[in-house]
């Protein structure tokens, strides 16, 4: 028998439960029944909050995207030399990823079968393109090495940042904190791990 | 009606079909029925080749692991300064990943529910540990920057390399070739994207 509790969910707390289930089972593999069981409230109580699981997906993805696109509006992303703006965006993207870990994880895993999923993928590509543009500008300024193709560099940069979702867990004892991880990403990507030989 | 063709499969060509299905549907989500349909031969024909889907998984994972562990036996991985060996292993890991793309993709996606999956994850961790040891040795030699933690550096390095499976497709026109990608990984990870300021 499933324990049914009183529905004391806020939109945010219900969303947090849904995102956890989406990340565990995949969005496609999640039914309203799964959400109801994980939340411990009836399906009709969930329908009291939202129209269905696609609305939960849209809200969760919006939260991740708002965080990411917000970075591009920050002074550090808008003012100054392109290379400095690129480093700012890199650091802040890693930070937002860790601060909004389940939401960004969901965004990165979505594979478009519904309108909401396709929209999520398109917005994610748009973010990547804006960062790629910044990278091209920094290259044009002569601040980036020319022997790595800009498109390839963008992919490797995002590959490094996005891989954080695979292992970063906030508050895990003895592990690196978010600040240290973000700083390590910036140092590794822009200055490299090797001590300069000259 | 499913078209059934004559069974002209070799162990290798049947494995290639199975790995494609595993990567598409996930290993858990793949049944012998799915494999039979994808291969266009009956289930009993498949059983003529292998005991079941777990044997196909084990063979596919072995192929990826043989490629990866083989790197550690190469002269470039065994002789010389740790930093040079680490760069060799990084380049070759990226190359093996691209040469054995579907097999390494499967290895990276496996999440242990069966003995074979747990074995795969353990062997993968063992490979990561051997690379992490090399990284620590290079740091002890004074060849790696000390302001990025060795464990974190290992994770970011593999994050960058492993992300290649998300977008690299061999022979895609106009895209970077495997040599260029492997070289870009080594340059980005060890020398960084930024032009040195001094």
TrEMBL record, chains A, B:
Keyword Transcription regulation carried by entry: yes
Keyword set includes Cell wall biogenesis/degradation: no
Record-annotated DNA-binding residue ranges: 31-50
Domain HTH tetR-type: 8-68
Coiled coil ranges: none
InterPro entries in alphabetical order: Homeodomain-like_sf, HTH-type_TetR-like_transc_reg, HTH_TetR, KstR2_TetR_C, Tet_transcr_reg_TetR-rel_C_sf
A GO molecular-function annotation: transcription cis-regulatory region binding
Pfam families from the UniProt entry: TetR_C_24, TetR_N
Keywords: DNA-binding, Transcription, Transcription regulation
The protein, known as: Putative TetR-family transcriptional regulator
Organism: Streptomyces himastatinicus ATCC 53653
Species lineage: Bacteria, Bacillati, Actinomycetota, Actinomycetes, Kitasatosporales
